[in-house]
Hints:
Layout: H1 2-16, H2 18-26, H3 43-55, E1 57-62, H4 68-75, E2 81-90, E3 94-102, H5 105-113, E4 130-132, H6 138-144, E5 153-154, H7 163-171, H8 176-187, H9 191-208, E6 216-220, E7 234-239, H10 268-286, E8 290-296, E9 303-308, E10 313-318, H11 322-337, H12 341-354, H13 368-380, H14 390-395, H15 430-442, E11 449-452, E12 457-460, H16 485-508, H17 513-516, H18 523-526, H19 574-621
Parallel strand pairs: 1-4, 2-5, 7-10
Antiparallel strand pairs: 1-3, 2-3, 6-7, 8-9, 9-10, 11-12
Amino acid sequence: MVQSSIMIYALKRLQKFYLIRKDFVRKYTNSATTLSAKDRLSYLEFIQLRQSEAKRTIVVQVNSEKSYLELSNYCKTYGNIVSAHHYDVQHEDDHHYILLEFSNEEEASAAINDSTYNIDYTGVPVRSPFLWFKATDKYQLKKNELAMQQIGLNIDGNRTIDNERLNNLLLASSCIEDQIKLLYQQTKLNDVGLRLRFLAALQVQHAVSGMFPNANAQPFGSSVNGFGRMGCDLDLILRLDKGVIGKTNTKRSESRLVFHTKENLSNGRSQIQRQMETVGDMLHLFLPGVFHVRRILQARVPIIKYHHEHLNLEVDLSMNNLTGFYMSELLYMFGELDERVRPLMFCVRRWANSCGLTNPSPGRWITNFSLTCLVIFFLQNLEQPILPTINSLFRSASQEDVHITEDGINCSFTRDFKRTGFHCKNKSQINELLLQFFEFYSQFDFHNRALSLNEGRDLPKPDHSALYIINPLEQILNVSKNVSLEECERLRIEIRNGAWLLESEIEYSTIPKSDKYSTSWGILNLFKSHENTITRPNFFLKPRMMEIKDLFDRTGTDNPTPVNGNSSTKFKNLIVKKQVQNIKSQARTEIKQMHLNATTSSAVTMTTTTPIKKTLKSKRSR
């Protein structure tokens, strides 16, 4: 009876979410190059789906994945468990967690409301979806085991695949295109990773909802734009009284009852900084799982960084980065338009990381966002473009698509590609696009030209930045302003090396499998290890022909420079060697002359002072 009711419920749920989930299946298959519009989830639908999942989810810490049967048997009293996922977090020992999704929000709230606090622990009693499961009597468990729900436990976890296993999988692939697709499949952010990130956002939203019932904590960046890999950081934007997505409440403007509010400071940036300082204190003092809170409030976009130990997640929280949110939507739309975009992006990022072009620490290196812009610009400039220009999206925006940030930045672009009239006719395979990417930028004039994703063409540089990529939304800014001249030159060199290597690998792909798979091949040869020497531009690091100190004698050393001027220094140029020897001999001659002059002047002084002293003595005697 229990199994039949569960089966009926499961069928209804599959029917209800079939159209929504269909995209998640089709998106990762290789059957079609371009997805039809009816099979694609819009960014708003994707966000709302994940937020709905988070609201009916709890995370329970257990002893191991074996505790699932006991946990599911206990939690079935609160409602129907739709899905269950196990993951672990490595500390001194592994901490195991099980994520349970109920059929609706009320059932999850019932489980949370019925939870208790640990009376043996002197902590702040905070209500949250993060719980732990107490041990119980084994006899009672055995007695109730027959009535248990048979919902399978997904042990996909949230750990990144190790390089050795990934390399073995890539080595066994049939062609370079399959290698690129497999790399994307094995390293992209999985379902559990997405669920955990929306749970982190929901925790922050619930923490401030008592005073700000309309608050919305929204993930953005790589976690939601489809280009995130396993282990990527979470970017959050917290809006206290303004929804980031969806329609605003228009009924409140018609009411004659108006809330009393505190007046903001005249300086909006100072107001945001003070609010974030208070939010940082709340995160640090009250929220379970939140540790290592750091406030970086003087940055261009003030943020709060913290680590969530129950999710093994690094979080960057901001309150006014709306352009980042809308940029995430734009990138999500590009990734949904053509299924080749994301695998190509993952391969380029992996190549850049293996070459040392990118670095997790901020500095003079090119960032993943800049690499993303390079790939999009390349796909816009093919003979048969795969992606449209951003200006075409701006021009096709409807009234519902108009979004102006508080800073006056226009983020209005169409959410429907049909309005642009863009149709992709390019049928190139991903490995062909990767080679064309390297060939395209190996000939690009980074020194004089800037990249504009808005117009889909290169423009004259407005300043002397080494690499200039115009920010698609804030067009007065340079996305890659941090990149140094040396790193830009390294990018150019590594792109040319990549073009040569990949072209060689394509020719090598005609070799029989038995010979090819015995050694590294395909994109594996494109990914250099960090142990290899990083390419350095010669004109930045020219070796010195000699040290300045070698121009002078080394006094007080065991091996002084020979008097004849022949030193142990090796010169690449004989003319320079002769010039150095002449300088040395001339310097020695001048130094000797200075010694002689000093000796002569001291002798003359002695001869002139002696008669004077004698004369003074004779006068005194008289």
